[in-house]
Amino acid sequence: MLNPDRSSTKGRVAIGMSGGTDSSAAAAMLVDQGYEVIGLTAHMWKDGSRCCSLEDVERARKVCSFLGIRHYVVNAQDIFSDKIVDPFVKEYAAGRTPSPCIHCNSFVKFGFLVDRARQLNCDHLATGHYARVEVLDGKYHLFCAKDPKKDQSYFLHRLDQEQLSFILFPLAALPKSEVKAYSDKRGLPIIPRGESQDLCFVEEGKLPDFVEQRDPSVIKPGEIHDQDGNVVGTHTGLHRFTVGQRGKLGIALGERMYVKRLDTENNIVEVAPRPGVMRSECTLTDIHWISGKAPEADLHCEVRPRYRSKGSNATIQMDNDRNASVIFDEPQFALTPGQAAVFYKDAEVLGGGWIDEVS
To answer: According to a count of CB atoms within 10 Å of the terminal CB, is the N or C end of the chain lower?
Structure first.
């Protein structure tokens, strides 16, 4: 039941805001739909970063002022450092390639912010993510967004039933072009900044330096081998490489070479031509099922081993509720330890796990 002191009969919604086009447009849409809207901005990192800095706080504040809604800034620096940044560095130090955005969604955007929204007596937390939530047979289901170019369901695969029950995605059915047109028509005071594919808490192009600053032990020179075991170069640390990487290898062998494997035991970067980086099997750990229940038998579905990957149909052979082997119908390029492999059935996200070993 809604509190009688609320100004809107549709309910109170907190929305995570960065001041960018998507979250600002989502906030405006909720206002236009008659909700009582509260802007929430999590200050997660220092100035100069993207989507979590004091600069974004000011951007979001301007939009909230324009919309005439309350705006709260919540300090999430401790949880962001503990749950996102520290594990990120640890994974790179272990020769793996982490996916911090997935952890951020689980622990911060749909964990920490959900708690704050509840404290503000809100009925929902909304964000500018491009994904859909539907209730079918009494269960909450996560689906891809209508716009495949903007779909972010891959990053949301670790959300659970309780989180999904509290979430609103106002942009679920809209392409980016319509969101931008709506924002312009509404006159939202948004300062364009582009859409970088880099991490929000690392300066562009300085990921290795960031890892080194937080863990100097990663600076460990070693050799680069081809797939026959020949020494073809040297490196200054495995954290400067990721499986599938082609550029910045520091070698010239007369053909395009890619990182095939990071041998942490011997501190070796192994490279190979593209065919040598194609793999068909991997093991997964810490699997999460959105329904809350693992399948009772082997599951054949689409598996996407990285964001923007077309993926392939694959058989998931469960070892137990949290671990499995995945056998792809077609070889995949650069299956990467530390990345998420996400399970889809048509447009629905079933869950996913972390790639552990590749064969």
So the answer is: N
